[in-house]
Amino acid sequence: MAMKLSITEGGKNLLVAGKGRRVPRTKLRQVPILQVPVSPLLSNFEKWAGKKRKLYFENEEALLSSGIQNYHLDRNVFAQLLASPMRCDRITRLKLPKDMMMQLKLIKLEPSSNTTKYSIELVPQGSHLKSNRSSYVPNKKAFLQKNMEAAMKWIPLPALLSDMRHFSVADVKIDRVNFLSNYEQELRKILDSKMPRLHGNTPKLQNWDILVSCSNSSLNFELSQAKLETCNDSPLSIVKFNLSSVTDKSWTTNYLKKNQNHSLGIVLRFPRDKETIYALRSLICFHST
């Protein structure tokens, strides 16, 4: 059964023309639009991409006020090693912090002591020097022994490419037999020269102090908690240098005995004992596998 619907005239006008009572609009409050500063890293990324920028702070107070914690990296030997300038290793072509590699220098041979055809010698440096041209190779004895035949390629490139070069490659002497042993002797001389400063000093352990000893541990370097010196002391973060990798055990025993300044071994502090610490680290890495 069909139903017939009837629409009044008023309803028809409402549907067709939209006539009827209007609902008043609520007046919206206008909120001011905040102008958020846009980082130049986003707006001009092509000008910044691939470029390093150093954060500059006027002083330590400005650093801390920016919300950056002070990690006391000036006392952290590994942070300082990693912060040294990058140099290209002449064997592997990898770029590494220079203080973690062996530095090579060209030195002029004196005519009075030189009875060979060579006028210049390529020698390793126990302590890095800034003068003259340098090249760098890995500080690993076993690795360098395998690559010793190609030692002529270790000559510093700036010296070879210089327009004022007054020598040829044939003039450079490389003592392949004593090259590595001479380097180790240089490191020992540095360590022996620092003996008077260490002897007789009994320091109290502090955070990031370096404890030099010889243990059966397989780790050459280790960050550990030091034993408490008194019942009131809190645990300290101490870096351990293990001399067990050094092959000359008699030298190691003698060095530790003569320079012991603490019941746990030899205690060094960075940066006060920087040269000694760097020489010890180089000696340990040189003998490690």
Which strand order spans the largest sheet, edge to edge or round the barrel? 5-3-4-6
Helix/strand/pairing category: alpha+beta
On the 0 to 100 scale, the average pLDDT is 81
> What is the name of the CATH class of the largest domain?
Alpha Beta
Shape: flat
Number of strands: 10
Provide the CATH architecture of the largest domain. 2-Layer Sandwich
Q: What is the succession of H and E elements?
A: HHHHHEEEEEHHEHHEEEHEH
Q: Roughly how many Å apart are the termini?
A: 101 Å
Helical amount among residues, as a percent range?
Answer: 25-40%
Low-confidence region ranges: none
CATH T-level topology of the largest domain:
Hypothetical Cytosolic Protein, Chain: A
**Whole-angstrom Rg:** 35 Å
Number of helices: 11
Family: Belongs to the RRG8 family.
Subcellular location: Mitochondrion
Protein name: Required for respiratory growth protein 8, mitochondrial
Keywords: Mitochondrion
Task: Walk me through what this model shows.
By secondary structure, this protein is α+β, with helices and mostly antiparallel strands. It has 2 domains: 73-189, Hypothetical Cytosolic Protein, Chain: A (2-Layer Sandwich), CATH 3.30.1230; 190-287, no CATH class. It has 11 helices and 10 strands. It has helices at residues 9-17, 40-43, 45-48, 60-65, 77-82, 141-146, 157-161, 179-193, 195-198, 249-259, 274-287; strands spanning 86-88, 95-97, 101-108, 120-125, 134-138, 172-173, 210-213, 221-225, 237-242, 266-268. It has a 4-stranded mixed β-sheet. Strands 8-9-7-10 form a 4-stranded mixed β-sheet, with helices on one face. Strands 1-2 form a two-stranded antiparallel ribbon. A hairpin with a 6-residue loop joins strand 1 (86-88) and strand 2 (95-97).
